[in-house]
Protein backbone atom coordinates (compact mmCIF):
# COMPACT_ATOMS: atom_id res chain seq x y z
CA UNK A 1 0.00 0.00 0.00
CA UNK A 2 1.31 3.51 -0.87
CA UNK A 3 0.52 6.57 1.25
CA UNK A 4 -2.27 8.71 -0.17
CA UNK A 5 -3.74 5.82 -2.17
CA UNK A 6 -6.26 3.14 -1.08
CA UNK A 7 -6.38 -0.21 -2.82
CA UNK A 8 -9.45 -2.03 -4.11
CA UNK A 9 -9.29 -5.84 -4.20
CA UNK A 10 -9.46 -7.53 -7.55
CA UNK A 11 -12.09 -10.02 -6.30
CA UNK A 12 -14.64 -7.25 -5.86
CA UNK A 13 -14.13 -5.54 -9.21
CA UNK A 14 -17.35 -7.07 -10.61
CA UNK A 15 -19.37 -6.00 -7.57
CA UNK A 16 -17.83 -2.57 -7.78
CA UNK A 17 -19.01 -2.29 -11.38
CA UNK A 18 -22.54 -3.42 -10.43
CA UNK A 19 -22.77 -0.92 -7.60
CA UNK A 20 -21.41 1.79 -9.87
CA UNK A 21 -24.16 1.09 -12.39
CA UNK A 22 -26.89 1.46 -9.73
CA UNK A 23 -25.34 4.59 -8.09
CA UNK A 24 -26.95 7.96 -8.67
CA UNK A 25 -25.44 10.21 -11.34
CA UNK A 26 -24.92 13.21 -9.07
CA UNK A 27 -23.08 12.88 -5.74
CA UNK A 28 -21.05 15.15 -3.57
CA UNK A 29 -17.47 14.38 -2.58
CA UNK A 30 -18.53 13.38 0.95
CA UNK A 31 -21.31 11.07 -0.34
CA UNK A 32 -18.88 9.40 -2.76
CA UNK A 33 -16.30 8.76 -0.04
CA UNK A 34 -19.02 7.47 2.31
CA UNK A 35 -20.25 5.12 -0.39
CA UNK A 36 -16.74 3.69 -0.85
CA UNK A 37 -16.31 3.32 2.90
CA UNK A 38 -19.51 1.24 3.04
CA UNK A 39 -17.78 -1.27 0.75
CA UNK A 40 -14.77 -1.70 3.08
CA UNK A 41 -16.25 -4.83 4.74
CA UNK A 42 -16.74 -6.44 1.35
CA UNK A 43 -13.01 -6.64 0.47
CA UNK A 44 -13.04 -2.99 -0.66
CA UNK A 45 -10.89 -0.22 0.75
CA UNK A 46 -11.80 3.42 0.65
CA UNK A 47 -10.50 5.78 -1.98
CA UNK A 48 -9.70 9.35 -0.93
CA UNK A 49 -8.88 12.48 -2.93
CA UNK A 50 -5.33 13.73 -3.37
CA UNK A 51 -6.29 17.38 -3.80
CA UNK A 52 -9.53 19.22 -3.28
CA UNK A 53 -9.80 22.99 -3.70
CA UNK A 54 -12.28 25.57 -4.94
CA UNK A 55 -10.94 25.42 -8.48
CA UNK A 56 -9.58 21.87 -8.84
CA UNK A 57 -10.60 18.37 -7.67
CA UNK A 58 -8.30 15.42 -8.37
CA UNK A 59 -9.02 11.81 -7.39
CA UNK A 60 -6.70 8.92 -8.29
CA UNK A 61 -7.53 5.21 -8.13
CA UNK A 62 -5.11 2.34 -8.34
CA UNK A 63 -6.50 -1.17 -8.77
CA UNK A 64 -4.40 -3.94 -7.31
CA UNK A 65 -5.37 -7.58 -6.84
CA UNK A 66 -5.09 -9.38 -3.51
CA UNK A 67 -2.32 -11.68 -4.78
CA UNK A 68 -0.11 -8.75 -5.71
CA UNK A 69 -1.09 -8.53 -9.39
CA UNK A 70 -2.28 -5.31 -10.98
CA UNK A 71 -5.71 -4.90 -12.55
CA UNK A 72 -5.65 -2.61 -15.56
CA UNK A 73 -8.84 -1.16 -16.95
CA UNK A 74 -9.23 -1.21 -20.71
CA UNK A 75 -9.30 1.96 -22.74
CA UNK A 76 -13.04 1.60 -23.22
CA UNK A 77 -13.96 1.47 -19.53
CA UNK A 78 -15.99 4.36 -18.30
CA UNK A 79 -15.22 6.41 -15.21
CA UNK A 80 -17.32 5.29 -12.17
CA UNK A 81 -20.39 7.40 -11.65
CA UNK A 82 -19.57 7.60 -7.91
CA UNK A 83 -16.81 10.08 -8.87
CA UNK A 84 -19.12 12.27 -10.98
CA UNK A 85 -19.54 15.07 -8.44
CA UNK A 86 -21.51 17.45 -10.61
CA UNK A 87 -24.49 16.88 -12.92
CA UNK A 88 -22.61 18.52 -15.79
CA UNK A 89 -19.61 16.19 -15.61
CA UNK A 90 -19.19 13.79 -18.55
CA UNK A 91 -20.09 10.27 -17.66
CA UNK A 92 -16.95 8.63 -19.06
CA UNK A 93 -13.21 9.20 -19.50
CA UNK A 94 -10.62 7.19 -21.37
CA UNK A 95 -7.19 6.10 -20.20
CA UNK A 96 -3.93 7.36 -21.74
CA UNK A 97 -2.51 5.06 -24.40
CA UNK A 98 0.97 3.53 -24.40
CA UNK A 99 1.37 3.91 -20.63
CA UNK A 100 3.49 0.85 -20.09
CA UNK A 101 4.49 -0.24 -16.60
CA UNK A 102 2.85 2.83 -15.09
CA UNK A 103 -0.08 3.04 -12.66
CA UNK A 104 -3.08 4.63 -14.32
CA UNK A 105 -5.95 6.54 -12.73
CA UNK A 106 -8.35 9.37 -13.41
CA UNK A 107 -8.39 12.98 -12.29
CA UNK A 108 -11.19 15.50 -12.09
CA UNK A 109 -10.32 19.14 -12.74
CA UNK A 110 -12.52 22.22 -12.50
CA UNK A 111 -10.83 25.06 -14.43
CA UNK A 112 -14.32 26.37 -15.22
CA UNK A 113 -17.74 26.12 -13.54
CA UNK A 114 -18.32 22.88 -15.47
CA UNK A 115 -16.13 20.05 -14.18
CA UNK A 116 -14.21 17.99 -16.69
CA UNK A 117 -12.37 14.66 -16.64
CA UNK A 118 -8.93 13.81 -18.03
CA UNK A 119 -6.56 10.87 -17.59
CA UNK A 120 -4.15 11.16 -14.65
CA UNK A 121 -0.91 9.17 -14.69
CA UNK A 122 1.71 8.51 -12.04
CA UNK A 123 5.28 7.38 -12.59
CA UNK A 124 7.39 5.94 -9.84
CA UNK A 125 10.18 4.47 -11.96
CA UNK A 126 13.43 6.10 -10.85
CA UNK A 127 15.44 4.75 -13.82
CA UNK A 128 12.86 6.26 -16.12
CA UNK A 129 13.16 9.70 -14.45
CA UNK A 130 16.96 9.51 -14.49
CA UNK A 131 16.95 8.61 -18.18
CA UNK A 132 14.59 11.52 -18.86
CA UNK A 133 16.90 13.94 -17.04
CA UNK A 134 19.91 12.65 -18.95
CA UNK A 135 18.02 13.05 -22.23
CA UNK A 136 17.13 16.65 -21.37
CA UNK A 137 20.73 17.44 -20.45
CA UNK A 138 21.94 15.91 -23.69
CA UNK A 139 19.49 18.00 -25.70
CA UNK A 140 20.52 21.18 -23.84
CA UNK A 141 24.23 20.56 -24.37
CA UNK A 142 23.76 19.76 -28.04
CA UNK A 143 21.70 22.94 -28.52
CA UNK A 144 24.37 25.08 -26.84
CA UNK A 145 27.16 23.52 -28.89
CA UNK A 146 25.21 24.09 -32.09
CA UNK A 147 24.56 27.74 -31.20
CA UNK A 148 28.25 28.36 -30.41
CA UNK A 149 29.42 26.72 -33.62
CA UNK A 150 26.90 28.70 -35.67
CA UNK A 151 28.03 31.97 -34.05
CA UNK A 152 31.69 31.20 -34.75
CA UNK A 153 30.86 30.36 -38.34
CA UNK A 154 29.01 33.66 -38.83
CA UNK A 155 31.85 35.67 -37.26
CA UNK A 156 34.43 33.95 -39.45
CA UNK A 157 32.35 34.67 -42.54
CA UNK A 158 32.00 38.35 -41.63
CA UNK A 159 35.74 38.69 -40.97
CA UNK A 160 36.53 37.04 -44.28
CA UNK A 161 34.18 39.38 -46.14
CA UNK A 162 35.64 42.44 -44.42
CA UNK A 163 39.21 41.35 -45.14
CA UNK A 164 38.38 40.74 -48.77
CA UNK A 165 36.69 44.12 -49.06
CA UNK A 166 39.68 45.90 -47.50
CA UNK A 167 42.26 43.97 -49.49
CA UNK A 168 40.67 44.46 -52.90
CA UNK A 169 39.15 47.91 -53.52
CA UNK A 170 36.22 47.73 -55.91
CA UNK A 171 35.29 51.41 -56.26
CA UNK A 172 37.21 54.19 -57.99
CA UNK A 173 36.54 57.91 -58.15
CA UNK A 174 36.53 59.41 -61.63
CA UNK A 175 36.42 63.01 -62.86
CA UNK A 176 34.08 63.88 -65.70
CA UNK A 177 33.69 67.19 -67.49
CA UNK A 178 36.69 68.52 -65.57
CA UNK A 179 38.19 71.89 -66.49
CA UNK A 180 41.31 73.70 -65.21
CA UNK A 181 41.77 77.33 -66.25
CA UNK A 182 43.96 80.35 -65.51
CA UNK A 183 41.90 83.50 -65.91
CA UNK A 184 42.12 87.12 -64.87
CA UNK A 185 39.88 88.95 -62.45
CA UNK A 186 37.76 90.35 -65.28
CA UNK A 187 37.02 86.80 -66.52
CA UNK A 188 39.27 86.56 -69.59
CA UNK A 189 40.87 83.13 -69.83
CA UNK A 190 44.63 82.96 -70.34
CA UNK A 191 45.02 79.19 -70.12
CA UNK A 192 42.31 76.51 -70.10
CA UNK A 193 42.01 72.77 -70.64
CA UNK A 194 39.29 70.14 -70.25
CA UNK A 195 40.10 66.61 -69.14
CA UNK A 196 38.70 63.45 -67.49
CA UNK A 197 40.10 60.50 -65.58
CA UNK A 198 39.83 56.70 -65.73
CA UNK A 199 38.84 54.12 -63.17
CA UNK A 200 42.31 52.63 -63.67
CA UNK A 201 44.45 55.27 -62.01
CA UNK A 202 47.55 54.09 -63.88
CA UNK A 203 46.10 55.59 -67.08
CA UNK A 204 45.58 59.05 -65.60
CA UNK A 205 47.91 61.87 -66.70
CA UNK A 206 48.19 65.50 -65.63
CA UNK A 207 46.25 67.99 -67.79
CA UNK A 208 49.36 70.19 -68.13
CA UNK A 209 52.99 69.18 -68.39
CA UNK A 210 54.65 69.15 -65.01
CA UNK A 211 58.20 69.60 -66.32
CA UNK A 212 57.49 73.12 -67.60
CA UNK A 213 56.08 75.34 -64.81
CA UNK A 214 53.58 78.02 -65.77
CA UNK A 215 54.47 81.56 -64.66
CA UNK A 216 51.55 83.27 -62.98
CA UNK A 217 50.59 86.94 -63.09
CA UNK A 218 49.47 89.12 -60.21
CA UNK A 219 45.83 89.19 -61.33
CA UNK A 220 45.54 85.50 -62.29
CA UNK A 221 42.85 83.26 -60.79
CA UNK A 222 43.09 79.47 -60.81
CA UNK A 223 39.69 77.85 -61.46
CA UNK A 224 38.92 74.12 -61.20
CA UNK A 225 35.52 72.53 -61.89
CA UNK A 226 34.56 68.87 -62.35
CA UNK A 227 31.84 66.29 -61.77
CA UNK A 228 32.80 63.49 -59.41
CA UNK A 229 31.58 59.98 -60.09
CA UNK A 230 32.15 56.42 -58.89
CA UNK A 231 32.87 53.41 -61.08
CA UNK A 232 32.79 49.81 -60.03
CA UNK A 233 29.45 49.81 -58.16
CA UNK A 234 26.07 48.79 -59.48
CA UNK A 235 24.34 51.66 -57.68
CA UNK A 236 26.61 54.22 -59.34
CA UNK A 237 26.41 52.59 -62.77
CA UNK A 238 22.62 52.69 -62.88
CA UNK A 239 22.50 56.48 -62.40
CA UNK A 240 22.47 58.93 -65.25
CA UNK A 241 25.56 61.05 -65.90
CA UNK A 242 27.96 61.60 -63.05
CA UNK A 243 25.44 61.41 -60.23
CA UNK A 244 27.25 60.50 -57.02
CA UNK A 245 24.77 59.79 -54.23
CA UNK A 246 25.09 60.39 -50.52
CA UNK A 247 26.57 56.95 -49.90
CA UNK A 248 29.59 57.76 -52.10
CA UNK A 249 30.39 61.32 -50.97
CA UNK A 250 34.12 61.33 -50.07
CA UNK A 251 35.21 62.22 -46.58
CA UNK A 252 38.45 63.71 -47.89
CA UNK A 253 38.52 66.03 -50.90
CA UNK A 254 41.32 68.61 -51.09
CA UNK A 255 43.24 70.75 -53.54
CA UNK A 256 46.87 70.83 -52.41
CA UNK A 257 49.52 73.34 -53.45
CA UNK A 258 52.98 72.09 -52.45
CA UNK A 259 56.57 72.99 -53.22
CA UNK A 260 58.61 70.62 -55.40
CA UNK A 261 61.54 70.40 -53.02
CA UNK A 262 63.50 67.53 -51.56
CA UNK A 263 63.01 68.72 -47.99
CA UNK A 264 61.69 66.33 -45.38
CA UNK A 265 58.66 68.59 -44.84
CA UNK A 266 58.16 70.80 -47.90
CA UNK A 267 55.90 73.82 -47.65
CA UNK A 268 52.31 73.03 -48.60
CA UNK A 269 48.75 74.20 -48.11
CA UNK A 270 45.42 72.38 -48.61
CA UNK A 271 41.97 73.77 -49.41
CA UNK A 272 38.92 71.57 -48.71
CA UNK A 273 36.38 70.96 -51.47
CA UNK A 274 32.60 70.79 -51.14
CA UNK A 275 30.99 67.94 -53.11
CA UNK A 276 27.28 68.09 -53.91
CA UNK A 277 25.78 64.63 -53.25
CA UNK A 278 23.03 64.98 -55.85
CA UNK A 279 25.24 65.85 -58.84
CA UNK A 280 28.82 65.38 -57.63
CA UNK A 281 29.62 68.91 -58.83
CA UNK A 282 32.76 70.59 -57.43
CA UNK A 283 33.96 74.17 -58.02
CA UNK A 284 37.11 75.82 -56.63
CA UNK A 285 39.16 78.95 -57.36
CA UNK A 286 42.26 80.68 -55.94
CA UNK A 287 43.59 84.21 -56.40
CA UNK A 288 47.31 84.85 -56.42
CA UNK A 289 47.26 87.16 -53.42
CA UNK A 290 45.71 84.32 -51.38
CA UNK A 291 48.73 82.05 -51.77
CA UNK A 292 50.34 81.56 -48.33
CA UNK A 293 53.61 83.43 -47.76
CA UNK A 294 55.67 80.26 -46.99
CA UNK A 295 54.86 78.96 -50.48
CA UNK A 296 55.82 82.28 -52.05
CA UNK A 297 59.21 82.25 -50.31
CA UNK A 298 60.18 78.83 -51.71
CA UNK A 299 62.60 78.82 -54.61
CA UNK A 300 61.22 75.64 -56.22
CA UNK A 301 58.09 75.48 -58.41
CA UNK A 302 54.67 74.73 -56.92
CA UNK A 303 52.56 71.73 -57.90
CA UNK A 304 48.77 71.86 -57.76
CA UNK A 305 47.24 68.42 -57.00
CA UNK A 306 43.80 66.93 -56.34
CA UNK A 307 43.32 64.42 -53.51
CA UNK A 308 40.08 62.43 -53.05
CA UNK A 309 39.66 59.53 -50.62
CA UNK A 310 37.06 57.84 -48.47
CA UNK A 311 37.07 55.78 -45.29
CA UNK A 312 36.63 52.02 -45.51
CA UNK A 313 33.82 52.12 -42.94
CA UNK A 314 31.76 54.18 -45.40
CA UNK A 315 32.27 51.79 -48.29
CA UNK A 316 29.14 49.74 -47.71
CA UNK A 317 28.65 46.41 -49.42
CA UNK A 318 30.21 47.44 -52.74
CA UNK A 319 33.78 47.41 -51.43
CA UNK A 320 36.41 49.92 -50.46
CA UNK A 321 37.43 53.07 -52.34
CA UNK A 322 40.74 53.55 -54.08
CA UNK A 323 42.17 56.99 -53.18
CA UNK A 324 42.66 59.37 -56.10
CA UNK A 325 45.82 61.54 -56.21
CA UNK A 326 46.06 63.52 -59.45
CA UNK A 327 48.70 66.23 -60.13
CA UNK A 328 47.18 69.02 -62.21
CA UNK A 329 49.73 71.69 -63.08
CA UNK A 330 53.15 73.07 -62.09
CA UNK A 331 53.20 76.78 -61.26
CA UNK A 332 55.60 79.62 -60.46
CA UNK A 333 54.22 82.47 -58.35
CA UNK A 334 54.46 86.04 -59.61
CA UNK A 335 57.87 87.63 -59.06
CA UNK A 336 56.44 90.69 -57.35
CA UNK A 337 54.57 88.58 -54.81
CA UNK A 338 57.67 86.50 -54.12
CA UNK A 339 59.79 89.62 -53.46
CA UNK A 340 57.10 91.08 -51.21
CA UNK A 341 56.91 87.85 -49.23
CA UNK A 342 60.68 87.75 -48.77
CA UNK A 343 60.74 91.40 -47.64
CA UNK A 344 57.88 90.89 -45.19
CA UNK A 345 59.55 87.86 -43.66
CA UNK A 346 62.66 89.90 -42.89
CA UNK A 347 60.75 92.96 -41.61
CA UNK A 348 57.86 91.56 -39.60
CA UNK A 349 55.90 88.46 -38.82
CA UNK A 350 52.72 87.33 -40.53
CA UNK A 351 49.42 87.64 -38.63
CA UNK A 352 49.38 83.89 -38.17
CA UNK A 353 52.85 83.85 -36.67
CA UNK A 354 51.92 86.74 -34.38
CA UNK A 355 48.83 84.86 -33.24
CA UNK A 356 50.90 81.74 -32.58
CA UNK A 357 53.32 83.74 -30.43
CA UNK A 358 50.59 85.55 -28.52
CA UNK A 359 47.95 82.83 -28.18
CA UNK A 360 49.58 79.56 -29.18
CA UNK A 361 51.25 76.95 -27.05
CA UNK A 362 55.01 77.44 -27.04
CA UNK A 363 57.94 77.32 -24.69
CA UNK A 364 58.32 80.10 -22.12
CA UNK A 365 61.79 81.68 -21.72
CA UNK A 366 63.71 80.57 -18.68
CA UNK A 367 63.14 82.81 -15.70
CA UNK A 368 65.96 82.96 -13.17
CA UNK A 369 65.30 84.22 -9.67
CA UNK A 370 67.77 84.61 -6.80
CA UNK A 371 66.18 84.48 -3.41
CA UNK A 372 67.36 86.98 -0.77
CA UNK A 373 69.61 85.92 2.09
CA UNK A 374 67.49 84.89 5.09
CA UNK A 375 67.83 87.16 8.16
CA UNK A 376 68.95 84.20 10.24
CA UNK A 377 72.12 83.98 8.15
CA UNK A 378 73.04 87.68 8.63
CA UNK A 379 72.38 87.86 12.39
CA UNK A 380 75.41 88.08 14.76
CA UNK A 381 76.58 85.12 16.74
CA UNK A 382 74.99 83.96 19.97
CA UNK A 383 77.77 85.42 22.14
CA UNK A 384 77.43 88.87 20.65
CA UNK A 385 73.65 88.73 20.99
CA UNK A 386 73.92 87.66 24.65
CA UNK A 387 76.36 90.45 25.48
CA UNK A 388 74.10 93.03 23.90
CA UNK A 389 71.14 91.71 25.88
CA UNK A 390 73.04 92.02 29.17
CA UNK A 391 74.13 95.59 28.41
CA UNK A 392 70.57 96.52 27.44
CA UNK A 393 69.22 95.14 30.72
CA UNK A 394 71.93 96.55 33.04
CA UNK A 395 72.40 100.11 31.76
CA UNK A 396 68.90 101.35 32.75
CA UNK A 397 69.37 100.07 36.27
CA UNK A 398 72.72 101.89 36.52
CA UNK A 399 71.11 105.15 35.56
CA UNK A 400 68.29 104.47 38.01
CA UNK A 401 70.76 103.91 40.86
CA UNK A 402 72.60 107.15 40.04
CA UNK A 403 69.37 109.11 39.98
CA UNK A 404 68.26 107.51 43.21
CA UNK A 405 71.43 108.73 44.94
CA UNK A 406 70.68 112.26 43.82
CA UNK A 407 67.02 112.35 44.91
CA UNK A 408 67.54 110.33 48.09
CA UNK A 409 67.36 113.41 50.44
CA UNK A 410 64.02 114.36 48.94
CA UNK A 411 62.61 110.89 49.27
CA UNK A 412 63.40 110.74 52.94
CA UNK A 413 61.05 113.69 53.72
CA UNK A 414 58.43 113.88 50.94
CA UNK A 415 55.59 116.37 51.20
CA UNK A 416 51.95 115.44 51.33
CA UNK A 417 51.27 116.74 47.80
CA UNK A 418 54.17 114.69 46.45
CA UNK A 419 52.78 111.53 48.02
CA UNK A 420 49.33 112.27 46.55
CA UNK A 421 50.91 112.77 43.10
CA UNK A 422 52.82 109.50 43.44
CA UNK A 423 49.61 107.68 44.37
CA UNK A 424 47.78 109.19 41.37
CA UNK A 425 50.53 108.01 39.00
CA UNK A 426 50.45 104.51 40.52
CA UNK A 427 46.66 104.47 40.03
CA UNK A 428 47.04 105.36 36.33
CA UNK A 429 49.54 102.53 35.84
CA UNK A 430 47.22 100.10 37.59
CA UNK A 431 44.34 101.21 35.36
CA UNK A 432 46.48 100.57 32.28
CA UNK A 433 47.37 97.07 33.52
CA UNK A 434 43.72 96.27 34.22
CA UNK A 435 42.68 97.47 30.76
CA UNK A 436 45.36 95.27 29.21
CA UNK A 437 44.16 92.21 31.13
CA UNK A 438 40.44 92.34 30.41
CA UNK A 439 38.71 95.70 30.77
CA UNK A 440 36.85 97.09 27.76
CA UNK A 441 37.45 100.53 26.33
CA UNK A 442 34.11 101.95 27.42
CA UNK A 443 34.69 100.69 30.95
CA UNK A 444 38.17 102.20 31.11
CA UNK A 445 37.49 105.68 29.65
CA UNK A 446 35.44 107.09 32.58
CA UNK A 447 38.05 105.90 35.07
CA UNK A 448 40.86 107.32 32.95
CA UNK A 449 39.20 110.74 32.73
CA UNK A 450 38.65 110.90 36.52
CA UNK A 451 42.13 109.68 37.45
CA UNK A 452 43.72 111.97 34.89
CA UNK A 453 41.90 115.02 36.20
CA UNK A 454 42.98 114.24 39.77
CA UNK A 455 46.58 113.67 38.65
CA UNK A 456 46.68 117.00 36.79
CA UNK A 457 45.36 119.00 39.78
CA UNK A 458 47.56 117.23 42.35
CA UNK A 459 50.59 117.33 40.13
CA UNK A 460 50.26 121.02 39.43
CA UNK A 461 50.15 121.91 43.15
CA UNK A 462 52.99 119.48 43.96
CA UNK A 463 55.20 120.91 41.24
CA UNK A 464 54.48 124.47 42.43
CA UNK A 465 55.49 123.55 45.98
CA UNK A 466 58.66 121.84 44.70
CA UNK A 467 59.55 124.96 42.75
CA UNK A 468 59.20 127.11 45.81
CA UNK A 469 61.54 124.85 47.76
CA UNK A 470 64.17 124.98 45.05
CA UNK A 471 63.96 128.76 44.86
CA UNK A 472 64.26 129.02 48.64
CA UNK A 473 67.32 126.81 48.70
CA UNK A 474 68.92 128.73 45.89
Written description of the protein model:
- The structure is a single chain.
- The chain is α+β, with helices and mostly antiparallel strands and 474 residues long.
- The protein has 4 domains: 118 residues, no CATH class; 43 residues; 181 residues, Coagulation Factor XIII, Chain A, domain 1, CATH 2.70.50; 81 residues, no CATH class.
- The chain contains 11 helices and 16 strands.
- Helix 10 runs antiparallel to helix 11.
- The N terminus is likely disordered.
Tally of alpha and pi helices? 11
Share in helix: 25-40%
Look at the structure and give the mean pLDDT: 72
Instruction: Please state roughly what percent of the residues sit in beta strands, choosing from under 5%, 5-15%, 15-25%, 25-35%, 35-45% or over 45%.
Output: 15-25%
User: What's the β-strand tally?
Assistant: 16
What is the gyration radius calculated from CA atoms?
60 Å
CATH topology of the largest domain: Coagulation Factor XIII, Chain A, domain 1
Label the overall shape.
Answer: elongated
Task: State the distance separating the first and last CA atoms.
Answer: 153 Å
Uncertain residue ranges: 1-124, 235-242
Order of helices and strands: EHHEEEEEHEEEEHEEEHEEEHHHHHH
The CATH class label of the largest domain is Mainly Beta
